[in-house]
Amino acid sequence: MSEEEKLSYSEAIKKAYASVYRFPLIPVRGIPIMNLIAKNWDSIWAFRPEPSDLLIATYPKAGTTWTQEIVDLLLHNGDAEACKRAPTPIRSPFLEIFSPPPIPSGLDLLKEMDPPRIIKTHLPFQLVPPGFWENKCKAIYVARNAKDNLVSYFHFDCMNMTQPDPGPWEGYILKFMRGEYPCSPGPEVAWGSWYDHVKGYWMEREKKNILYLFYEDMKENPRREVERIMRYLDLSVSDEVISRIVELTSFKNMKENPMANYSCIPAPVFDHSISPFMRKGEVGDWRNHFTPEQSKMFDEDYEKQMKEVNIPFRTLI
Ligand code: PPS
């Protein structure tokens, strides 16, 4: 690219970012998803991964970035500098993301990379391109307890201008509880129901060899969970490297790491002054948000929505 071309490309990128504003959601097979993803759905569904690719799947705000960083460090034997080669979304592309051109889509980035690639998705199980299962790709699913997940998603929806406006806190709880399109009137939660998401992967975890992790376990004993991921990936790194990875992926260190804290996404899109991407990183923050009445109402509904499964979520550690 000539200097002139570079300049006009960077202007076009700035313009594209400035044009981003609270994309409407459109249903894809009943799941509300941002309109650019819905419009490009056929190319996402047709994506063919390589067998060595790894999928990291989560409901939004469940610990995706943390897991992406752990996996990248494991694949680089704990080499911190190697894992600062680029920001998270470039090192580990977001499969379904589409933004206004010329911002590259997840698929554009993946095309340029050699396998094994660490691929992020928020798609519910039934919308994951079938090529992942046909090619027997490994997949890590990270789940976070519903109340903390909701709190984190609320703050993210406030600061992320690609997401629908969250509206007031009280209404957001109801929106999260309903999740699905078209049951809920008004704007839904992007990527649909938390309940169906965590259940969908839980039911398939054995058949599809999915490593199902919990955010609360990662907080409680990060070393144990890093070792679990290492074994799942058939890797072997020294105890010293494990210790380094645990340290490098602590909340504090990732918050300060510009290659992991999403400061790469410019202000018109992620407004970190409203709420930083690396916000609190705690278990139990829901207690600072839910009133006792809201908590009771949420718990009663939770029992109903989760009655057919016994997923060992913890809302405190
Ligand atoms: S996204 O946008 O869906 O990819 O977000 P995701 O990375 O899944 O989730 C963001 C929340 O995870 C917290 N986080 C961490 N917690 C503990 N340790 C580490 N290292 C870490 N990295 C990210 C992040 O702060 C968000 O949670 P909240 O509760 O909002 O702080």
Number of domains: 1
Q: Name the poorly predicted regions.
A: none
Sheet with the most strands, sense and barrel status: 4 strands, parallel
Average pLDDT taken over every residue: 94
Percent range of helical residues: 40-55%
Structural Rg:
19 Å
Number of helices: 15
The CATH superfamily label reads P-loop containing nucleotide triphosphate hydrolases
How far apart lie the N and C ends?
52 Å
Overall morphology: globular
- Which ligands accompany this protein? 3'-phosphate-adenosine-5'-phosphate sulfate
Write the element-wise H/E pattern from the N-terminal end onward.
HEEHHEHHHEHEHHHEHHHHH
Please state the structural category: alpha/beta
Write down the CATH class: Alpha Beta
Q: Can you tell me the CATH architecture?
A: 3-Layer(aba) Sandwich
Structure description:
The structure is a single chain. The chain is an alpha/beta fold. It contains 15 helices and six strands. The chain is globular and about 60 Å long. 3'-phosphate-adenosine-5'-phosphate sulfate binds near residues 254 and 285.
